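Per reviewer request, we include the raw input and output of the structure prediction for the construct analysed in the revised manuscript.
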Amino acid sequence: MKADIHPDYHPVVFQDLSSDFAFLTRSTLTSKETVKWEDGNEYPLIKVDISSASHPFYTGKQKVVDTGGRVDRFRKRYAK
């Protein structure tokens, strides 16, 4: 690896604003805001609108909208 060409990869806390869910991971993103984490250290805080705690696919609240019977037509066409 070449030296001094890669961005700084450091611990960051991501906080989901809609569900008040937060997790600590590593990222190249930075922020002026900081938060004190469970381990007593302060980390940059990145606020996000949606995460796995609030996304409909992961929470099981996703709805499949079948307009015009497309799924049924596909199954009928390719049924064996």
